[in-house]
């Protein structure tokens, strides 16, 4: 059973072919980073237009690499939300048109659920139930995942998502877009003893997060202490240290509350080295197993979409019946 997966929710066109028996056959990503770089962030209309340009050639390339013909496909899976409405519509229209021609289902999947399932593509996958920490550019959530499709949100951000905070602080520090990985790189040169940022929300009960205060703290620090290279690196270090501590503290609390023994960490920020080190350390202390996707599947990609769609397809989910509907905001 062969599935074609399509991801167009934001600024990456992702395509993958997944086979139930052989696993992932091929996957490719076309990143729009250079297109948006001069604007310092994603320009939605440019993103949609670029998906239109890149999607078909990318599908042809990936199908060729996987040595798969259109007639071999059992279903087409696409991200239906959350994301940028115009960008989502490109993938949804493409998938539904192909499904109409091939007379196979077009299955809509939730982008955040696909992130959560990404570690299942690894050789040593997790098993339900687990605690999921979803950390991306638009979401920061702690989720109790009891079974496939059964998720309860235990906590989430009250303001900025952690990836968004990384990107905004990176902008303050005059780093190029996309800021998160650039800030992490700069933080390596930071002096750990120079600044200490607060750990937001840790003195409050519950499992919610807040990151906008850290962003303001970084801005005030930058204004007060100047923007020489060392100060920028010191601010990057202090911000990253505080943001990742806040995530780890709440994870530990969620584990105490649920007694779960596995943590799945996914979404763009799960690529962050400092976060991984801190979570691995906590895992050792608490005898927990921590699972991540491989680095290239932390950020947006077609492979996680194909995999999530395959799970829904075998679970009996029906296709979207030519209804091209997308959900810019969509709770999983
Ligand atoms: O999952 P993703 O690719 O897209 C969304 O679904 O939002 O996540 C993108 C986010 C961006 O905010 C980006 O700056 C952040 O993930 N990110 C990182 C790192 N790599 C990506 N943040 C911190 N450290 C990283 N290494
Ligand atoms: Zn994402």
Say which molecules are bound, naming each kind only once. 5'-O-[(R)-(carboxyoxy)(hydroxy)phosphoryl]adenosine, zinc ion
CATH class of the largest domain: Alpha Beta
The overall number of domains is 2
**Helix-residue proportion:** 40-55%
The dominant shape is globular
The poorly predicted ranges are: none
CATH fold description of the largest domain? Nucleotidyltransferase, domain 5
Termini separation: 26 Å
What's the total number of strands? 10
Q: What fraction of the residues are assigned to beta strands by DSSP?
A: 15-25%
Named at the architecture level, the CATH assignment of the largest domain is 2-Layer Sandwich
Radius of gyration: 20 Å
Biggest sheet record:
5 strands, mixed
The strand line-up of the biggest sheet is 3-2-1-4-5
CATH homologous superfamily (4th level) name of the largest domain: ATPase, nucleotide binding domain
Helical stretch count? 10
Structural class: alpha/beta
- Summarize the helix and strand pattern as letters: EEEHHEHEHEEEHHHHEHEH
Overall pLDDT level? 97
